[in-house]
Q: What sequence folds into this?
């Protein structure tokens, strides 16, 4: 059966395709400085919400987010890209990033403390939040 090898401890897991469990493990890693409040509704945004989705809020100075984008795009969930703070930076994988003043207001209304911020959203409410650097490993 595919995927059984990754059921034990997290060591040795590869994030080429991140099943929902791996995504939740990534998002469940608490980091100091995360100020996004769980359970709060998302501020106004331009997309039609899915039942469960991932929202990535990032800026131009986040560095290489390739591993993070790969993991998120492999999750099977709709991914929303929000490019905040006014410097245009494209999102990968054919995603169209929301940019401009509205995107920055969205980020500030969420109280994002560190970019990138990844939000797992269920029915328009923040279910889980992760902020900070991603090294491509589940530790």
A:
């Amino acid at each position: 059966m595919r995927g059984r090898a990754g059921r034990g401890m997290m060591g040795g897991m590869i994030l080429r395709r991140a099943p929902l469990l791996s995504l939740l493990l990534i998002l469940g890693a608490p980091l100091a400085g995360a100020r996004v409040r769980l359970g709060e509704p998302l501020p106004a945004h331009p997309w039609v919400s899915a039942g469960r989705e991932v929202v990535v809020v990032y800026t131009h100075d986040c560095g290489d987010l390739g591993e993070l984008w790969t993991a998120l795009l492999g999750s099977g969930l709709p991914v929303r890209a929000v490019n905040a703070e006014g410097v245009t930076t494209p999102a990968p994988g054919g995603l169209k990033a929301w940019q401009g003043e509205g995107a920055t207001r969205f980020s500030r209304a969420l109280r994002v403390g560190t970019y990138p911020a990844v939000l797992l959203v269920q029915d328009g409410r923040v279910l889980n939040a992760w902020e900070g650097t991603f090294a491509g490993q589940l530790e």
About this structure: The CA atoms of residues 6 and 16 lie 12 Å apart. The longest strand covers residues 52-58.
